[in-house]
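Q: Phenol degradation protein meta, please. Structure only.
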Amino acid sequence: MKPLILKLSVLFMLGISSSMSSATENGADSYALGAEGMMAGALPPPGIYLLTYYQNYHAGRFDNGPPNFHLDVNALIPRLVWMTEKNYLGGQLGFYAIQPMVDLRLSAAGMSDHNSALGDLMLGSMLGWHQGNHHWIGAVETVLATGKYDTPTATQPVVANIGKNYNTIRPILAYSYAPPNGIDISTKLSYSFNDENDDTHYTSGDYFAGDYSIGYKLTDKFKVAVEGYVFKQVKSDELHGEDIKMRGQVLAVGPAVQYQDKNWSIEAKYLTETQVENRPEGHTGLLKFIWAF
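A: Structure for Phenol degradation protein meta:
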């Protein structure tokens, strides 16, 4: 069977799932593409912080995927961060937990499904370093298969699954350069290792993903930026141990603005996807709100 036909067959046998963004198995993954932007590499002082993300994602086509494809995702993602006073290897220690809440509408090839549920729980630990205008973060994130997941059936082959039904380990590096002249150059890079979906015997291939931001501070409180994300699958998916030799990729870019006050900030962006291969293609709007307790 040719790779494209095999991939399409797998999509209809297993159902198509998604949460915040999409990649790998059935065009879906747990990485929040585009969520981070300005000062992504700078951790705050010790304390407790609430970060709340809202994302609307719409895709009207699936490259090398099923016909008549439409995907609409609305996600509210609270992230609780605890920065401790402890230091290891010269870096400040912190922890975080993320629990997505997702509403997903999906249609493909004349079939449709809708789901609203909790997504997969994410837990992470991190170290942050600061040296003059340079800021770094090193982190390890675990994505647990806790979200709602329904195994597709012959009568319901297209399923709007919120959870992925597999676990992920994700090392992360982030960096920001913020000199006094107002420039803000930031990036967050990650690599994801996925285990097998026990219900489908499908293993999503390893992939590289990253957010980027090139911004400028217009005033003490207001910044503008060009932001986006990249995704590149570097290992093929597997079904029952056999490679499916199609790998996803995407590049997204768009404008962003940020307003920051004493103990809170809000960032908004609109990103359009291009250079898409073997995955949904669309656009996304994101809001990120940070509150320091």
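A: Brief note, in case it's useful. The chain has one domain: 3-292.
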